[in-house]
Amino acid sequence: MNLALWIVAGLLAVAFLAGGVIKLVLSKERLAAAPGGGWTADFGAGAIKAIGAVEVLAAVGLVLPAVLDIAPVLVPLAASGLVLLMGGAIITHLRRHEHKAIVANLAYLALAGFVAWGRFGPESFTG
């Protein structure tokens, strides 16, 4: 179980680090022109940068605290934050009737929920 949690947390970290950096580096117009970028019409440029920053922080929080053994309770908190972020993404895509994007968001939500559950519960770093 511990190995599965590490693998899932690592994969989530890579995915959200990449997505967050893209949101921080590219302009709103370039993101909107990309496939699946229609959601950017609902947000200002600053909000998109903020979402990118949250994704980068969550990616770091999924792995780094446990690796360095400094405040490892941040791992399930970061995973819980991703659950909330993906919940918001699902709501945004539901409003825009972008049903294909919801499937990916649900997968990320489930994986982040698994890490949060596992690290708060049976495979906690504090126990």
TrEMBL record:
Location(s) in or outside the cell: Membrane
Superkingdom of origin: Bacteria
InterPro entries in alphabetical order: DoxX
Membrane topology: Multi-pass membrane protein
UniProt keywords, alphabetically: Membrane, Transmembrane, Transmembrane helix
Chief place of localization: membrane
Parts of the chain that traverse the membrane: 6-26, 47-68, 74-94, 101-120
Name this polypeptide is given: DoxX family protein
